[in-house]
């Protein structure tokens, strides 16, 4: 993000571990949007060396990974009528009874929907499909909470349902 709050395209990004061993490359799209998967090893630290389009470089220390918790991913295909939310955990995250409850909130402009998901030893992954027609059009936020309703993860996503691009005409001023 630049000084004006806008995303910045990364021309070339590289992930390294604490021993400066190269792990993987990544780049972003024009507005600085992108993603990559990193299977972090326990007790290892990682950093990213980023080269921007203007040739400048910067190093970012990545946050340490947790061996317990719930991971959230959003799968949003503009051609489909639904958005898929995937929640994953591991055995280490389950309580002594072999279960784990988490909550998620989808919200935009004061409108919200709070739901719960429950994991157990036999089912460490949950997928939730929501119809785009039941979610606010535009940019929404999904927040993941632990059993005590403490926020642990958050993602923005765009719902294109009934989204109408404005009709814009440009004229050159002479």
Task: Write up this protein.
This protein is mainly β and 174 residues long. The chain contains no helices and eleven strands. It has a four-stranded antiparallel β-sheet, with no helix packed on it. A four-stranded antiparallel β-sheet has the order 8-7-10-11, with no helix packed on it. The chain has a three-stranded antiparallel β-sheet with strand order 5-6-9, with no helix packed on it. It is flat, with a radius of gyration of 20 Å. The two termini are 34 Å apart. The model has no long low-confidence stretch (mean pLDDT 91).
Instruction: Write down the Rg.
Output: 20 Å
The class by helix and strand makeup works out as mainly beta
Major sheet: order of its strands? 2-1-3-4
**DSSP strand (E) fraction?**
over 45%
Kindly state the percentage of residues in helix. Answer: under 10%
- Could you tell me how far the N terminus lies from the C terminus, measured between alpha carbons in angstroms? 34 Å
Which overall shape is indicated by the principal axes computed on the Cα atoms?
flat
Main β sheet profile:
4 strands, antiparallel
Give the overall pLDDT as a whole number. 91
Query: What is the number of beta strands?
Result: 11
- N-to-C order of helices and strands: EEEEEEEEEEE
Short description:
The protein is an all-beta fold. Helices cover 0% and strands 47% of the residues. A four-stranded antiparallel beta sheet has the order 2-1-3-4, with no helix packed on it.
């Amino acid at each position: 993000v630049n000084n004006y709050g806008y995303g910045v395209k990364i021309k070339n990004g590289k992930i390294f571990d604490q021993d400066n061993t190269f792990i993987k490359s990544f780049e972003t799209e024009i507005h600085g949007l992108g993603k990559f998967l990193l299977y972090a090893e326990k007790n290892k630290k990682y950093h990213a060396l980023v080269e921007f389009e203007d040739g400048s470089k910067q190093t970012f220390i990545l946050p340490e990974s947790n061996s317990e918790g719930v991971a959230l991913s959003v799968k949003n295909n503009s051609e489909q009528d639904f958005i898929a939310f995937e929640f994953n955990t591991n055995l280490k995250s389950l309580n002594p009874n072999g279960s784990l409850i988490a909550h998620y909130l989808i919200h935009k402009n004061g409108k919200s929907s709070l739901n719960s998901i429950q994991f157990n030893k036999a089912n460490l992954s949950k997928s939730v499909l929501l119809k785009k027609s039941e979610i606010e059009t535009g940019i929404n936020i999904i927040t993941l909470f632990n059993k005590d309703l403490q926020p642990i993860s958050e993602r923005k996503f765009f719902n294109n349902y009934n989204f109408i691009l404005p009709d814009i005409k440009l004229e050159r001023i002479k």
